[in-house]
Amino acid sequence: MRNKYLRIILLLLSLIITGELTAQNRFPKPEFESGYVQPSPTTPEPRAFAMEYFDVFILIAVLLLISYFIFRKRSRRGILWTSVFSLIYFGFYRNGCICSIGAIQNVTLTLADPNYGMSVVALLFFILPLVFALYTGRTFCAGACPLGAIQDLVVHKPIKLPVALQRGLGMIPYLYLGLAVLYAATGTDFIICRYDPFVGIFRMDAPFTMIVLGIGFLLVGIFVARPYCRFFCPYGVLLNWMSSFSRWHLTITPSECVSCKLCENSCPFDAIDIPDHSIQKKDVSKNVKRFLIFTLLIPIWMALGAWVGHQSHVFLSKGNSQVYLAELLISHPELKSDIDNLDIQAFLASGKSMDVLVEEASLIRNKFRIGSWILGAFIGLVFGIKLLKQFVYRKKEDYEPNKGECLSCGRCMDYCPVES
Q1: What's the number of domains the chain is made of?
Q2: Are residues 265 and 285 in the same domain?
Q3: Are residues 250 and 142 in the same domain?
Q4: Per-residue pLDDT tens for 372-407?
Q5: pLDDT at 398
Q6: Which residue range forms the structural domain that includes residue 251?
Q7: Torsion on CA atoms 285, 289, 295, 299, rounded to nearest 10
Q8: Rounded-to-integer distance, Cα 72 and Cα 420, Å
């Protein structure tokens, strides 16, 4: 009986082995006369589920540590070394991904497309810095963001830009944020990730133009402190809003300010509000009138911005591959025979009709029409509010960091002679 079972087992094993050999030889590798050797395909291992949450743990630990150095130790050196760690870990080790800045696009696409699912880790990277900003200011900018850290290390001889120039450049992050949301909501592109100036440096691999852009930002950053953070970063807009209402915030002095003025030029980001006792009562009354006038002008700025946005939606929609392809084939139908155009050949191979392509492109363009209208109104609102702020006067007795603009780097604390 035992020999009978043994024979059955051997027979099954022989059948399995024979079947495997047959399956392996059923579809032999193609032979090429050119001498081409087919490489062995390799698939990179995905990051382990536990390691993704480890990244979240590191982010929380860094934000807590920076808060400790700001409020307990008042240590610029501690903030600096924490930012170096973030640069090494989130920048070079994690290759700039996951990124809180780029997570704006994931959140937008999740809200706009029910078929898109956002990971919990990406959501946490988006929310956590904002929550900390609401309570402790822009601690994320101080030392958790690798993009800010790499710029902070090259600041050498910062110059003070004219106020008018700073205000003009300050509109760019709002426009960048609006465009990023628009392109993500329409499923067109993640432009924040595509045009990240430092991700190529972190990964040691990027198109030549992006490498040049990243190096250019660092060279400018020697004299204009953190140019990307101040004049381009779309996530900085959200952090600015949250930090403006922060419950606790970095202070220059640990106790009462003695107005020694030693900190007046200590901030390379021009984020210190300086006391101004020169404003007279008559100036205040003039400001009230101007404030009312510019308040009434805000709806006009929004309407003008909405009109400009509506006029530009056709141009902006061309960034979508389907819209671009539909327009190309409509205007140049002879390109269907162009075998070198991979986009056209992929469309023809898909079996999709021209009518379907045009219909899909029309739906996307309609999304751009609505989105561009909203974007223009948003930019008009921001522009109107920024003009309005020029006539808002708040009496200041001490030298204080501007809650919204301050990056909580801690440089100003070392200039204060007051001991806690």
Answers
A1: 2
A2: no
A3: yes
A4: 999 999 999 999 999 988 877 777 778 899 999 999
A5: 84
A6: 57-275+399-415
A7: -170
A8: 11
In which element (H, E) is residue 400 found?
A: strand 400-401
Residues of 242-266 as b/e, b for ≥16 C-beta within 10 angstroms? bbeebeebbbbbeeebeeeebbeee
Rg of the Cα atoms in the chain = 29
> Tens digit of pLDDT for each residue in 291-313?
899 999 999 999 999 999 999 99
Identify whether 214 is part of a domain: yes
CA-based nearest residue to 198, from 165, 161, 229, 244: 229
Residue 254 lies inside a defined structural domain of this protein = yes
Weakest-pLDDT range from 21-35, 42-56, 68-82, 371-385: 21-35
CA separation for the pair 151, 226 (Å, rounded): 5
Pair (140, 116) in one structural domain: yes
- Give residue 267's pLDDT band: very low, low, confident or very high (50, 70, 90): very high
Whether residue 188 contacts residue 169, with contact meaning beta carbons closer than 8 Å, is answered with no
Question: How far is it, in rounded angstroms, from Cα 134 to Cα 266?
Answer: 25
Question: Do residue 135 and residue 264 come from a single domain?
Answer: yes
Distance (Å, whole) CA 403 – CA 56 = 26
